[in-house]
Amino acid sequence: MTIRTSYFALASALAVAASPVAAQDADTLREELAQMRADMAAMAQRMDALEAELAEAEAEATAATAQASAAVAVAEAAKAEAVAAKAEASEGASIAFKGMPEIKDKGGWSFKPRGRLQFDAGIVSAPDSTGREDGFGSEARRARLGASGDMPGGFGYKFEFDFAGGDLTVTDAIISYEAGDAEIMVGQLNTFQGLEELTSSLHTSFIERSAFTDAFVFERRVGVAVEYGSGDVLLQGGVFTDNMANLSNKNWSADGRAVFMPKLGDTQIHLGGSVHYSDLESGSTVRYRQRPLVHFSSERFVNTGNLDATSEFGIGTEAAFISGPFHAAAEAYWQNVRIPGAMDNPTFFGGSIEAGYFLTKGDTRGYKGGKFDRTKPANPVGEGGMGSLQFNLRYDRLDLSDAGIVGGTQDGYMASLVWKPTDYTMLLANYGRLEYSDAVFAAASGLRDYGVDTFAMRAQIDF
Length: 463
Fold this sequence. Notes:
Layout: H1 3-92, E1 93-98, E2 100-105, E3 110-125, E4 135-151, E5 155-162, E6 169-179, E7 182-190, H2 195-198, H3 211-215, E8 220-230, E9 233-240, E10 252-260, E11 263-264, E12 267-279, E13 285-286, E14 289-290, E15 302-303, E16 307-308, E17 311-323, E18 326-338, E19 347-358, E20 366-368, E21 371-373, E22 388-402, E23 405-420, E24 425-437, E25 450-462
Antiparallel strand pairs: 1-2, 2-3, 3-4, 3-25, 4-5, 5-6, 6-7, 7-8, 8-9, 9-10, 10-12, 11-12, 12-17, 13-16, 14-15, 17-18, 18-19, 19-22, 20-21, 22-23, 23-24, 24-25
């Protein structure tokens, strides 16, 4: 046997032996292929299901995105509307704080509450032999509430009530109309009788105004008035009846005032004059008298007593200037009374001169519209400062003796210290030495020439 034959025989034997194994592997392979086909079919079904779920999710996401876009659009529209409303509101109404809120709208309406509280306390020392009440005294000098503002068409209003002393009284009750540089006023208002009389009690440099303003019964009256102001010139005039509390009667008066108020650099100049005439109904009387500086004292050491009168005629002059921390002011007033049947009609006199200086840096006295106005501290309390501190001196004279009428004379020598912590608060201390001649109350041995000392303090707040 050859080698080739041997190999052939061996291969034949191996092929015969391998035939059953190959057949078995083919069956196994067919089973595995069948299983794979089944698995692939299941996978295909699962993929179809996942694609369906994905499509549904994408649809929901698209819908949600559309809703979100709509919501954003609505929000943007609402924001735009709110901005427009805010802009319209800003143009239509505004609120400013001047002690209290002042509300204004574009239609011409405005409203501001207003008021003041002034509490006074002090001591009056008179000679014991006069028998007059003196010593400590106090009072709520003013307790006012009211409002002021504008109305469409150039109209305005102001009303104020005073509750001090437990009685309700009307102070201001005014309807006004502006026409260019002129203003017409109807109602109860202050007549035009001098610088200090027209200066608010909130802005005076002493606890009370000059003696003649009270002695000659300067007061608010019901009437109609016109005020014209242009540049440095101010003209005021009106016709009045009586104070609202005293109506009705036949008394009437006419008052006028002219002011020249130029500003030379930083210096404010004030020059003015006033005239007053009143016609009194038959049987009327007048009485001129004055307290020793403070209002809480009921004593009057100068007093003409009741005088029969048919009319009054008064004339006044006034001057002032403000330069930085310094100011000075002077007034004089003559009041003539027509007494029926008298050989000579008396003319009484009052006047004052004062000077003041701010001890705090940057402060000056306020001035506006022909009268002293609010002092605004340059460094108020609450903003790192101490407020303003002002020292003032005054000489004040009142002469109620003339033509056989002996009402006495009062010469006042006064000093005051005014501290304003803020624009709307004030503490004031005032000393006055009142020298009397021909006083109506006699001291020991019939002496009518003597002096009275007064010291008083005021706490004030306004809005």
